[in-house]
């Protein structure tokens, strides 16, 4: 599903000091995998994840998503790719504050031009599955962190994407809630979703089927978890 | 359709977060649109009123006078009106050739002539006119008959009365037609009653010269000339065939008078057409002032929207990043922010319509102008407000749409 070869990315120009954040990355992820990317220091995990999520560009190497050469896609095609194939989950939830939980989950389907009734039905179903049936009309500010993250996951699942990208999804949650979210991820993975997740915590990474360790913008080794 | 409704709902929710900030821009648009409405009301009402009033003096009217304002003192020393029956006869004979439909002499009676019936007395304007005068001056008959050629030619002692004179001279409850009144001691038969004439602020122009058309007594001009013992005409009133030709006809007729009086009199020709033009110019001036101030309010409102949207885009950079991550295309973001800008101005526009309508009603009451509703103007006001919103929302919306997703996401 994801095929990255010799990928590099740097920030800054020749005038300013050049900061190389990703160095010659090779990474292949098959459909159905649950991959955790780990790195003790802050040196490029989010950047890599954003590139995988077709949000960011890179300077050298290649990236194919389901056989499509991603750098060749124009901005609209990239948006379509994200819309239909990728669901994002962030550390800080990133729900839209003025919209209700229901409206947040409906949003991706609004962009796929689904009808109101279809959207609403699907969003209610998704939120109900995640145990938020009685929180549909709550604004994000009226929900706990764990609830917000579950709304965010419901939103990520709205257009039934094959890939879930999660950048430290448990980073803002207490241990117990974090474990709940990981159990949710595992069950999503069992249902066939491919998941790529960044985390600092070994306990959290342990839920993945494979751990990719990075240091200073390079991949150290690929380890299969239990 | 449902997508649009959802977009509108989302835009409303977003605006609601900063409703106080949006309110200022809404106010700007409201004032602008209300001003557009009020200006429209004044100029439409004013035009209508002026037209209606001028109509009562005959839109195709032309007046020919001796010009006393000449700089040549030797001309001023000449006495008399400079217009005689022979001038009238000549113009009347060549009517078709000159483009004149009707022509009537006007001969004034001295101011000290008293009109009487029994012990009732009136100080009326006593005016001698030709057969077609009532047609030219757009006088309507409400009872009796108009003068005929025989009345003029054989100097019949007949009169037509305007409403105020009827109420002064004629005993209430009796039919004025067929009654007798006395003018300067001579007996006259009332044959016709004239309808009430509008005399609002425009009554000061034209042949009535600032006088009230409703206190006239009309006589055959030949009768007054006989009583005064001369053959002079104070002025001539014409009705031209074509409104557009009024000025030409007036000048040609004036030239005739100049030619007929080689000894030297000067003449003045006034047309209703030129009065209308003048009043229209004044009204247009008023409208332009109004439109300029309306445009300024709209501009201020538009700049307010641009500012509000610019700030919103900055504040919501993160939200834009999130939407892009979720899969929003550039046009989705564009639509979203344009929708918000358009909504601000549409709300302003609707409120402006409301305020403008109330203002129009009040203005119409205060000025006495007729209130003429204009669906076209309502449409125009709404279109203007939405266009202002879209124009001023365009650049902020485009900035939002073109943001790099990662940059937007990382902002805080
Ligand atoms: N737009 C940018 N311009 C310049 N430098 C940047 C930019 N974005 C990120 N960086 C730098 O690139 C490096 C990698 O950033 P990134 O966010 O990918 O790291 P990370 O591994 O996700 O860190 P963390 O664990 O703290 O989330 C950091 O040193 C960061 O300062
Ligand atoms: Mg990071």
Describe the structure in brief.
The complex is a heterodimer of chains A (226) and B (412). In chain A, 34% of the residues lie in helices and 27% in strands.
Description:
The complex is a heterodimer of chains A (226) and B (412). Chain A has helices spanning 45-52, 75-85, 101-111, 116-129, 145-157, 175-190, 202-205, and strands at residues 2-11, 19-29, 34-38, 60-65, 68-69, 86-89, 163-167, 194-199, 210-215, 218-224. Chain A is α/β, with parallel strands linked by helices. Chain A has one domain (32-57, 75-224): P-loop containing nucleotide triphosphate hydrolases (Rossmann fold, 3-Layer(aba) Sandwich). Chain A has a 6-stranded mixed sheet, sandwiched between helices. In chain A, strands 2-1-4-5 form a 4-stranded antiparallel sheet, with helices on one face. In chain A, strand 1 (2-11) and strand 2 (19-29) form a beta hairpin. In chain A, helix 3 (101-111) crosses helix 4. Chain B is an alpha+beta fold. Chain B folds into 2 domains: 2-54 and 278-410, no CATH class; 68-265, no CATH class. Chain B has 15 helices and 12 strands. In chain B, strands 1, 2, 3, 4, 5, 6, 7, 8, 9, 10, 11 and 12 form a 12-stranded mixed sheet that branches. Chain B is elongated and about 105 Å long. The two termini of chain B are 34 Å apart. The chains are: A alpha/beta (226), B alpha+beta (412). The interface between A and B is medium-sized, with 33 and 25 residues. The complex binds adenosine-5'-triphosphate (ATP) and magnesium ion. The site of adenosine-5'-triphosphate has 10 residues of chain A, from strand 2 and helix 1.
